[in-house]
Amino acid sequence: MDRIESAPVPAAAECGQPEGDDALNRRQFLGAATRLGGLVLALSLPLPRTARARSNPASAELNAWLSIAPDDSITILVDRSEMGQGVFTALPMLLAEELEVSLDRVAIVAAPVGDAYFNAANGGQMTGTSNSVQDAWVKLRTAGAQARSMLIRAAAETWGVDAAACRARDGAVIGPSGARLSYGALAERAARLPVPQQVALKAPNEFRLIGRGLPRTDTPAKVDGSAVFGIDVRLPGMLYGTYAQCPVLGGWPESVDASAAQGMAGVHSVLTLDRGVLVLAEHYWQALAARKALRVHWNPGPNAHLDNAGIRALLARAADTDPGLVARSDGDVHSALRGAARTFSATYELPLLAHATMEPMNCTADVRADRCDLYVGTQAQQLSQAAAAVPAGLPPDRVAVHTTLLGGGFGRRLDIDFIPAAVAGSKAAGRPVQVIWTREDDMTHDTYRPPALERVSAGLDADGRLVAWQLHITSPSVTARVAPPVVGVDASVVEAAIDMPYDVPNLSITYTRQEIGIDLGYLRSVSHALNCFVIESFMDELAAASGRDPLEFRMRLLDKQPRHRRVLETAATLAGWGRNAPGRHQGLALMEGYSSKIAQIAEISFDAGKLRVHRIVCVVDCGRMVNPRIVESQIESGIVFGLTAALWGEVTIEGGAVKQNNFDGYRVLRANECPQIVVHLLASEEDPGGIGEVAVPPVAPAVANAIFAATGERLRTLPLGRFKPRGA
Amino acid sequence: MRIRLNDRMVEVDAAPDTPLLWVLRDHLNLRGTKFGCGRALCGACTVHLDGAAVRSCSVPLAAVGGRAVTTVEGLSANRRHAVQRAWIELDVPQCGYCQSGQIMSAAALLAANPAPSDADIDAAMAGNICRCGTYVRIRRAIHRAAELLRGGE
C-alpha cells in the first residue's frame, strides 16, 4: 500500500538546501525525476517551455508529468493540488491508463511551477472550479499514450522488429516472439525519440483503470500521520512565527512596543510589517506567548464602522438604484411580466461565510541571497510564486514552490495573503521561517464568501406556466479583486443563474457590483450556492402559488433537458417523493454546474420546534467517471459542506471586526448532526463534469423547501438553523 | 521532563505550560497530531492518555505526569490497527488533516466499547470536526473496525 510519496516536500525539507542555479531549474522542472536517477520523457533542457507551451500545447508539454527510472520506478507528477478531492488518484489514473501500468506501481509527487501545468480554463496553474479532471481528460491520456508509443518504438528498435508487432502491458513492452523489456530498461532510449504527434487513445471499452473505484493513493499516508501538510514542513534551523493582524479588517499597526516580547524565552525577533506584526521564536508556543506580550496600537483604517447592517444597506441601496449589467437576456421580460396572468416578487439575502479549512493558513519560506524556497499548501502555484518574490526581493523565477498536501482548500488557498509574512521573516532572520495562523487569525482574517442581495420576479400565464423570470443579483466581485480588471459582468457571480436549466421564454439576469470594503474570496461552489438557493427556493414559491407539486412544476419546464429530467426523476423515485412518513417533510432542488447535473431531496422534521435533517438523497449525472468511489465521496463531502452553510453559516462583523473566532462561534456540522446521505451516480458516456463543488449548492434550497413544506413559512435568508416554527 | 510516549520514555526540554500538542509537534517531531483550533473544539489534536482520547492542544506538558501518551504514530506498526485497516478499506480520508484525530477518537471508543451503536459513535465522535464531511464513512468504518476486532474479515 506504500504508493504515495509525499516527497518532494519532506525529502527536500529534510535533506537541507538544494544547491545553486542549475539545481533550482532542475528541481523546478524535473521534480523528483532527477533524484530517481531517471529521465523525464521528451522534456529536454534547456527549456523553451514558454514558447512551446504557447505555440503548440498539444505536443510540447506532453510528458512533463512522467518519469521512469532504470529500476522501473515510475513517477507521475500531478499538477493540481491535492486537497481531498482526489487528484492524486484520478489524474494519475488517466496517464497510467494509456501507459499500461497499474496505479500501485506509480509514485505520485506534486508538480513544481511550470508552463506545462497551466490550466487554461482557470488562467494559470490553479486548482479550482472543479475542472482538474476536465482539464486533464485528454491531456494526460495523450501524454500516457505518447509515452507508451515511444517505449514501444524503443523496444522495437532494440529488437529490430516492427513496432506494430509489439504491445505494452503492465509496465513492459512485449515483442512478437514473446520477448519482454521493462519500461525502466527502455526509458532512456525512448526519451531520445521524437514525440509522436498522432496517437490513438483507447476506446472506453478498453479502459482498465478509468471507471473503476480504485483506492486513493493518498489514503495510507493519511491514516498513520505521515502525510505532510504545509504545517508539517520542517527545515534545519527553522524558526516558527505567529502573525498578529489588526482586528479590524483592513487596518494596520501604527506603533508597536515589543520590548516585553523581545526578552521572552525562545524569542528570536519581532518584525513590524505593513499589515501586521510577526513574532519569530524557536518554538511556536514561545512565539504565541510572546505575541500576547506585544503592545500594538492599531490603525483601524477605513472599516472601523463596518457591520452587517451597513453591508446590507449598501447592497440594498445599490440594488434599488442600479439597473445592473445584463448577464443574460432572452425574449422580452418586461413585456412578459406586464402581460402575465400573475406575477410574484421576492428578495433573498445571503450572508458572508468563512472557509474554515481544518488546517489553518500557514507558509514556510527559506530565503537565500539568490533563491527562495516556498513550502505551502496552495491552490495557486504561480500566484504564490509572485507573492513570495516581492518580499524576497527576487524575480519570480527564483522562487521554487513546493506544494504540500492541503488540509482543506475550498478556495481559501487560492489566496496568497498568508505567504508574504513568512518570506519577509525568513529574509530578515536569515533562517527558514514557518508562519502558522492561529484558528482565531484564520477565522477573523479570512477572505470571506461574498454576501448578496438578490431580487427575483416571475410571471405565470393563465395555465400556471412560467413565462417570465427576472433576477437581479447585487454582490461584490471577487474576480475584480484577484484578477482585475473585470470588464462587464463577473461571470463567477452569475453562474447557475445564466445557465438555469428551465425553459422560460422571457428571461433576464442582471448584475450590480457593489463592494463592501473588505477582501472577499471564492468559496467552494462560489456563486452557484447563492444563485441556486434563490432560484430553487423561488421555483418552489411559484409552484406553491400555482398550486402545483414542486417536482411536477419543474418537470414541465425541462422538456428540452433530458439529463436534468433524469436526475430529478431518479431522485424522486429514490427518495419516495410525495410518500414521506408522517411528521417528515421533503424539499427538492436541481442544479447544473461544472457541466454536471444534480438533484437533491432533503427530508426533515421538527421535534419540539427543533429542525432536524434526517436524510439527503442526491442523484448526479457528472458524465463519465474516472473513479466513482471518489465521485461518491466528493458528493457526500459537498452535501456536508452545503448543510453546514445552510444551517449555521454566517460571519458577522461589528466595528469592522469579525465576531466569530473559533469553532464555538462559527458552527460547523458535526458527526452527530450528519444526516443519512444517499448518493446515486448515473452512468453516462458524456465527457466528465466536475464533482468537487456541485453537491454544495442544492442543499440549502432543498432544506428550505422542506421547511416550507413542513411549516408553510418561506425562508429567504440563510442560515436556516435558527428558524423556529410558529407556535413552537 | 520525561514522558512515556508510544511505549518508550522520552526526554522533553519544554516549558511546563507548553501544550502537549506543541511538545509532540515541535519538540519531538511527531507531526501526525494536528493543530486545528487550540481550544479543544475540533479534535484534530486528539491523542490517548492512558488509552483515553484527549485534546492535546489543551493538556499542558506538566499535566501529563506519568500517564502513557499514544499518538497516531504509536497506534500500530504498519497501519495494522483495526481502525486504520477499516479507514483504508473504506477510503475514509479526503484532505486528511483531521483524520489522525478521528482515528485516535475511534480507537479509544472501540477500546472501551467493542460494539458501538450509531448513537455511541455519534457521541464519541462529536468532538472531531471534519470539514470535508467524511462523517458518513467514518461511521461505516468504525462499524467495520469493530467487525475486524471481533475477528471478522
Describe the structure.
The complex is a heterodimer of chains A (728) and B (153). With 728 residues, chain A is an alpha+beta fold. Chain A has 3 domains: 9-223, Aldehyde oxidase/xanthine dehydrogenase, molybdopterin binding domain (Aldehyde Oxidoreductase, domain 4), CATH 3.30.365.10; 230-301 and 361-436, Aldehyde Oxidoreductase, domain 4; 309-352 and 448-711, 2-Layer Sandwich (Aldehyde Oxidoreductase, domain 4), CATH 3.30.365. Chain A contains 21 helices and 27 strands. Chain B contains 5 helices and 5 strands, in the order ββαβββαααα. Chain B has helices spanning 20-27, 82-89, 99-112, 118-125, 135-149; strands at residues 2-5, 8-11, 46-49, 52-55, 68-70. The chains are: A alpha+beta (728), B alpha+beta (153).
Give the strand tally of chain B. Answer: 5
Largest sheet of chain A: 7 strands, mixed
Q: Tell me the β content of chain B.
A: 5-15%
Cα radius of gyration of chain A in angstroms? 27 Å
Order of helices and strands of chain B: EEHEEEHHHH
Shape of chain B: globular
What's the pLDDT, averaged over the residues of chain A?
Answer: 91
Discrete helix count of chain B? 5
Q: State the strand order across the main sheet of chain A.
A: 10-11-8-18-15-16-17
Largest interface: A-B, 65 and 60 residues
- Name the poorly predicted regions of chain B: none
**CATH class descriptor of the largest domain in chain B:** Alpha Beta
Through-space gap between termini of chain A: 54 Å
Helical percent range of chain A? Answer: 25-40%
Q: Give the total of domains of chain B.
A: 2
